[in-house]
Amino acid sequence: MRKIFALWNLFLLGILFLVTACSKNLVVILPNADGTSGSVVVQQGGTSVVLDKPYAATKLDGQAETQPIIMDSQEVKRIFAESLAAQPLPPVSFNLYYKEGGTQLMPDSVSVLDQIFQELEKRLVYEITVIGHTDRVGSVQDNDALALKRAKSVMQIMIDRGVKTWLIDAAGRGEREPLIATNDEVPQPRNRRTAPPRS
């Protein structure tokens, strides 16, 4: 049985930075890992400027700008070197496998648990989300209960090894949100998992 385990940082990608440099404030939007970016509207007085591209920037110096500046990525890295170095590590996922119908880990997954705890030691701040899923064998009610039981079993392993209860969350989705669509009563090991929430 496959389980995916996710560590989610308390961190939003597409972050923007505000820095005081040469007596002027600068707002810059950074790209996500895939090169896209979010957007932000910066208002000064009665004028606003939309930053909606990677490295789009504006100064907050009291002078109204209507168009963003597009900064060089290397210059942004130089100006914000300390802030960039302080960013948390990106989220990671782990696969855990269980014997069918229960919450007993497969032997290979014991080493994965060790990897999870090694990853936690690298992080100053983290949040863990475990969401259980099942395949479509059995009733919807039974699958809901089994999915939650699997997620809570992972949660308990983490708590037993020192993770504070307020840093971990568990939920069950039953047979909803399958990775592989199947007809009812068709076993599918890839759907029997825990996974991070979908965004």
Question: Count of helices?
Answer: 4
Unreliable stretches, pLDDT < 50, 5 or more residues?
1-23
Q: Give a quick account of the main beta sheet: strands, pairing sense, barrel closure.
A: 5 strands, mixed
Structural class: alpha+beta
| Strand and helix order | EEEEEEEHHEHEHEE
Helical fraction equals 10-25%
Q: What does the radius of gyration come to?
A: 22 Å
Distance between the termini: 24 Å
- Overall mean pLDDT stands at 79
**In what range is the share of β-strand residues?**
25-35%
The count of DSSP E runs of length 2 or more, i.e. the number of strands, is 11
| Shape category | elongated
Question: How would you characterize this protein structure?
Answer:
It is a single chain. This protein is α+β, with helices and mostly antiparallel strands and 199 residues long. It has helices at residues 73-79, 81-85, 109-121, 140-160; strands at 2-8, 16-21, 24-29, 40-44, 47-51, 56-60, 69-70, 92-97, 127-132, 168-172, 194-195. Helix content is 23%, strand content 28%. The protein is elongated.
How is the topology of this model organized?
Blueprint: E1 2-8, E2 16-21, E3 24-29, E4 40-44, E5 47-51, E6 56-60, E7 69-70, H1 73-79, H2 81-85, E8 92-97, H3 109-121, E9 127-132, H4 140-160, E10 168-172, E11 194-195
Parallel strand pairs: 9-10
Antiparallel strand pairs: 1-8, 1-9, 2-3, 3-6, 4-5, 6-7, 9-11
Q: What descriptors fit this protein?
A:
4 helices, four-stranded antiparallel β-sheet, five-stranded mixed β-sheet, 199 residues, alpha+beta
